[in-house]
Amino acid sequence: MNAIYLDHAATTPIHPAVVERMTEILTSHYGNPSSIHSYGRKARQLLDQSRRVCADSIGANEKEIIFTSGGTEADNLAILGTAFANKEKGRHIITTKIEHHATLHTAQYLERNGYEVTYLDVTENGTIDLEELKRNLSDQTILVSIMMVNNETGVIQPMKQIGEILSNHGAYFHTDAVQGYGLLEIDVNELQVDLLSVSSHKINGPKGLGFLYAREDVAIQSLQFGGEQERKRRAGTENVAGIVGFETAIQLADSERAEKINLYQKFRAIFIDTLKEHHIDFTVNGDKAERVPNIINLSFPNMNVEKLLTNFDLSGVAASSGSACTAGSVEPSHVLTAMYEADHPCTTNSIRFSFGLANNEENVKEAAERVAAIIQRLSK
């Protein structure tokens, strides 16, 4: 029995072209980019080229890209860095109840240290109410942090409208774009975002890498101390080979975007249609239209997350109950709790399936067949 990976929202397989490029750099270009000799200058050239690719992918300036260890660090730097640097202007931050824990736990830390945080509700579709955002803005609000695509449901937030609302306010606009980057076309100027977080391992790049876009006029305080790397905003010798691998993954994602969108839409249709063919009872969580094509979150009535995931794994199907950072937890999903209510059955009977490089039409169909058989057996 072949194992089938349907958890690309947690992490993705590294692309063979990325491995090849990283191996070349690891074996040939080992200089420190801060060194002035030829080895260091070559490493710096590679780093600068990768930074330009990152910037171009979101319509930014290369000076506005800060390399980080991943999406979590990028979120922390965006939220804590701006909160600390702008505390004299105000101590109010707005975010949502459905953010990744990299944002939620950071916001909670600020609350314990004298800041006020407003957590916006979401509708049953998984999107925020723009009027609620407007009502909560004040002259003390220094930052609004709203994720672009939810990691559990795949629902896309109304980014343009949020940017327009904040364009007439002094608060910075940060978005965790980890789940949208690579699939959605992103232009930071069009969206009017000031800070944007990205992670490499979500787009078939290496783990332990990401970047934070920070608009040039954003006042941000460094959270690490040491050398003067990343224009004094993030100390530490850069992971040149990993960053070049990340660059390769970005180039692949950009060139294959349209093809992947069509492919993932097909995978999603095959998966859902197969469940329907077997008369499986399920509902889709989240907005049906405003979502990325590679993530579906399904609620199976009268089922239990823990039992489902255990049986899926035994059958060779890898899926998730939500964020990989809380994998193994049987607590209700905080995202689905915000969308519905605390005791709603969907919070404990929903599974996230996410498609990507490890999939083809045949194994998506096979995975759906196995899921259907398990649901039918557990229903008896």
Folded structure, characterized:
The chain is an alpha/beta fold and 380 residues long. It has two domains: 4-12 and 257-379, Aspartate Aminotransferase, domain 1; 16-254, Type I PLP-dependent aspartate aminotransferase-like (Major domain) (Aspartate Aminotransferase, domain 2), CATH 3.40.640.10. Helix content is 41%, strand content 13%. The chain contains 14 helices and twelve strands. Strand 5, helix 6 and strand 6 (172-176) form a beta-alpha-beta unit. Helix 2 runs parallel beside helix 9 (240-255) and helix 3 packs parallel to helix 4 (101-111). The longest helix is centred in the C-terminal third of the chain and has 21 residues, at 257-277. Mean pLDDT is 96; it is low at 323-327. Keywords: Iron, Iron-sulfur, Metal-binding, Pyridoxal phosphate, Transferase. Its cofactor is pyridoxal 5'-phosphate. Pfam families: Aminotran_5. It catalyses: (sulfur carrier)-H + L-cysteine = (sulfur carrier)-SH + L-alanine.
Features:
three-stranded antiparallel beta sheet; seven-stranded mixed beta sheet; alpha/beta; globular; 380 residues; 41% helix; Aspartate Aminotransferase, domain 1; Aspartate Aminotransferase, domain 2; 12 strands
CATH homologous superfamily identity of the largest domain: Type I PLP-dependent aspartate aminotransferase-like (Major domain)
CATH architectural label of the largest domain: 3-Layer(aba) Sandwich
Q: What is the helix content?
A: 40-55%
> What composes the largest sheet?
7 strands, mixed
Note the beta-strand portion. 5-15%
Helix/strand/pairing category: alpha/beta
Shape: globular
CATH classification class of the largest domain: Alpha Beta
Number of DSSP E strands? 12
Q: Write the element-wise H/E pattern from the N-terminal end onward.
A: EHHEHEHEHEHEHEEHHHEEHEHHEH
Distance between the termini: 24 Å
Which sequence of strands runs across the widest sheet? 2-8-7-6-5-3-4
Mean pLDDT: 96
Query: CATH topology of the largest domain, which one?
Result: Aspartate Aminotransferase, domain 2
Rg measurement, Å: 21 Å
What's the total helix number? 14
Q: For this entry, what is the oligomeric state of its chains?
A: single chain
Low-confidence stretches: 323-327
Number of separate domains: 2
